[in-house]
Amino acid sequence: MGVMSVRMRRLFALAMSALLMVACATSPPPPAAPAAALPPPLSPEEALKERVNAFWKARVADDLVTPYEFLPPEDKKRVTLTAFIKTHGGIKYFSYKLSEIMIDGTVAKVKGQSSIRLDIAGLPAMVGAELSRRGPWPTPVEEHWVLIRGIWYRPLIQSSPVSPPSEEGARSPAEGQ
Predict the structure, then answer these.
(1) What is the rounded CA–CA span in Å between residue 153 and residue 47?
(2) Is residue 55 situated within a structural domain?
(3) Do 159 and 144 form a contact (C-beta atoms < 8 A)?
(4) Domain range holding 143?
(5) How far is CA 121 from CA 60, 84, 89, in A?
(6) What are the pLDDT tens digits along the chain (177 aa)?
(7) Rounded to whole angstroms, what are the CA distances from 155 to 101, 113, 152?
């Protein structure tokens, strides 16, 4: 009887282990931890400030690929990345500081201060070398941004969509000829 009881105990322990494994495998997973709360959406001004600072961070780092990504989709249809890079060299930006944002609906005027030096490869060596030794110069920056489908873009052509010409300065097409 003693041998039988040892076998029975082992068999019972084995059966209980098997039942426990099956029970654990088929039990529902523990409840998921609550999802982290999403940060509140940015205000238009905060979103624009982020975009402006990212654009200028790239320019100061001599990165011309990233600023291309800030062009509105319509501008990207008109100019390739290669053409953009070829036409946007020649100025070395050392710093940029955003000073003012003025938003009017889907257009904005942004003012800041940059520090630049000219670095123009096409100039005669003597003149180009002289310009490259000068600077950096503090330079005010005023640029325009447009909001398209919730994203701020910096148009290639920096016209002033925020402030139309004053009535006294405006001329009819006939007067301009």
Answers:
(1) 11
(2) yes
(3) yes
(4) 44-153
(5) 19, 16, 9
(6) 555 576 767 656 655 665 555 555 555 666 665 666 777 888 999 999 999 999 999 999 999 999 999 999 999 999 999 999 988 877 889 999 999 999 999 999 999 999 988 776 555 555 555 555 667 889 999 999 999 999 999 999 886 544 433 333 333 333 333
(7) 16, 19, 10
With respect to residue 29, please indicate whether it lies within any of the assigned structural domains.
no
Q: Give the span between the Cα atoms of 49 and 114, in whole angstroms.
A: 16
The token duo for 55 is 């654009």
Element (H, E) at 171: none
Q: Please state the domain count of the chain.
A: 1
131/121 Cα distance (integer angstroms): 11
Decide: helix, strand or coil at residue 161.
coil
Q: Does residue 99 form part of some domain?
A: yes
Beta bridge partners of 148: 151
CATH code (residue 62): 3.10.450.100
pLDDT at residue number 68 = 96
E strand or H helix that includes residue 38: none
Strand residue runs (E) in 8-136 = 91-104, 107-118
Assess contact for 136 and 91: CB atoms under 8 A.
no
Q: Which two tokens stand for residue 160?
A: 């002033």
Q: Tell whether 116 is covered by a domain.
A: yes
